[in-house]
Amino acid sequence: MKINLLVGGPIENYPERLLEKRGQDELWVGADKGAVRLCEAGIKPILSIGDFDSSTNRERYLVDVMSKEVMTSVPEKDDTDTELCLRLIEQRFHPDLISIYGATGGRIDHLLANLFCLLRPEFLNMISKVEFIDKNNVIRFYNPGEHEIKQIEGMRYLAFVSMGPVDDLNLYDEKYRLRHANLSRVISLASNEFVSETAHFSFKNGNVCVIWSKD
Amino acid sequence: MKINLLVGGPIENYPERLLEKRGQDELWVGADKGAVRLCEAGIKPILSIGDFDSSTNRERYLVDVMSKEVMTSVPEKDDTDTELCLRLIEQRFHPDLISIYGATGGRIDHLLANLFCLLRPEFLNMISKVEFIDKNNVIRFYNPGEHEIKQIEGMRYLAFVSMGPVDDLNLYDEKYRLRHANLSRVISLASNEFVSETAHFSFKNGNVCVIWSKD
Questions:
Q1: How many whole angstroms separate alpha carbon A113 and alpha carbon A180?
Q2: Which keywords does this chain's UniProt record carry (chains A, B) (predicted)?
Q3: CB-CB neighbors (< 8 A) of B191 in chain A
Q4: I need a labelling partner for A27 at 20 to 30 A (CA). Which of A152, B30, B73, B131 fits?
Q5: Residue A35: beta bridge partners?
């Protein structure tokens, strides 16, 4: 089962037509402003979560009547909306994949909080089923091991980002290869590319995120 | 002396009217597509750097005639444009401040490469004079010590981002305070705020970036 999560980032960064013509069998969770946008687009969230402190009464009413369930969180909480949603989505639905939209653009502290929160011990066991998607990027996360990744249509570039120290990183069959690299800190190895339909990489310790992107 | 550096990210993320009505005494360096944009806006770069492999002949000619100096870099080099520019700007001009524009928006691998490259040993001694600026964010970097920061007009939010392990982080007088926090990895402590004109923080080991931002 796949869950789509819409958080509150700027609409300009959404993939094209994100909220148009969605299949009725798609499952959406909305976080705060994201929940409002889902409901305004006629998509009924299976769960809406947020403090809704920047929403109008009309928006809050819309979310209440359209959502299957609404959970009101406390403003000024320690968790970000994304963290709260990830935890609840995992507990409730045990999905195979969580595709997060609206997490990029605008505030960079939010983007970094979204990317980095997956390193929290409680989320490490679910990072392989989380992806962030915007109009220019798809971001997925990997625990140590051997991995095969596939081209995504329209996304020309490929990047490997160490999320902290990473041991023995191997990029076997990408345009720019790497053997037994030990990275001591966060590094974004940008502007790599696929040379065939699939690419393979491995590493021993740490966490890596892979970014498919286009200009 | 202050140097402005324009790299090649999307124009939509520039601060408003970035390239209009600039003072004639401002010093600009352009990286690749950024150099083209400076010249097209009538700003004469003191240095233009790039492989210009995605520029037209007309664009390349414009850069050649308008720039005080052009350095052609090799495509598919190991350094990113930003790294190359930082190194050259420091060697040539020894500026007090390097304000980088065009480093955000679009590809997230580029954004992360730009932020994280400052952790390379060769750049650590200059991180305190580098800032990234876009329409929603100002990002500055700090080495260990005691620091005072000031409000930036229009930027409501304040974030402290550990760029790796950070020891004994103290946020003394921000809206959300922290005492003697040891952070073991990259974490974005987002959505803090100033409570007066200035705020103070300190930490003992590691590197912290501070993000002033607005929605």
A1: 29
A2: ATP-binding, Kinase, Nucleotide-binding, Transferase
A3: 80, 109-110
A4: A152
A5: none
Cα B64 from Cα A150, distance rounded (Å): 41
Cβ contact A215–B80 (<8 Å):
no
| Number of domains chain B is built from | 2
Find, in chain A, the residue whose alpha carbon is nearest to that of B192.
A76
B213, two tokens: 């931002």
Tell me, what's the ipTM?
Answer: 0.95
Per residue of chain A (215 residues), give pLDDT as tens: 999 999 999 999 999 999 987 777 899 999 999 999 999 999 999 999 999 988 999 999 999 999 999 999 876 667 888 999 999 999 999 999 999 999 999 999 999 999 999 999 999 999 999 999 999 999 999 999 999 999 999 999 999 999 999 999 999 999 999 999 999 999 999 999 999 999 999 999 999 999 999 99
Number of H helices, E strands in chain A: 5, 14
Of A135, A150, A169, the one marking the end of a domain is A135
β-sheet bridge partners, residue B101? B6
| B66 and B170 housed in the same domain | no
Crossing angle of helices A33-40 and A57-66, in 10° steps, is 70
**pLDDT reported for residue A23:** 72
Using the Cβ of B107 and the Cβ atoms of chain A, whether some distance falls under 8 Å is answered with: yes
Q: Which residue, of A96, A112, A135, is where some domain finishes?
A: A135
Chain B residue with the nearest C-alpha to that of A117:
B187
For the segment B191-203, the average pLDDT, to the nearest whole number, is 97
B67: closest CA of chain A, how far (Å): 26
- CA dist A208 and A127 (Å) reads 10
Structure tokens at B115: 């932020």
**A143 lies in the same domain as A96:** no
Q: Residue range B159-166: average pLDDT? A: 97
Q: What is the mean pLDDT of chain B?
A: 95
A66 and A114 share one domain: yes
Which structural domain, as residue segments, surrounds residue B26? Answer: 1-135
How buried is B178 (Cβ within 10 angstroms: 0-12 exposed, 13-18 middle, 19+ buried)? middle
Cβ within 8 Å, pair A107-B215: yes
pLDDT band, residue B79 (cuts 50/70/90): confident
Query: Which chain A residues are closer than 8 Å to B109 by Cβ?
Result: 137, 157, 159, 161, 188, 190-191, 211, 213
B20 and B113 housed in the same domain: yes
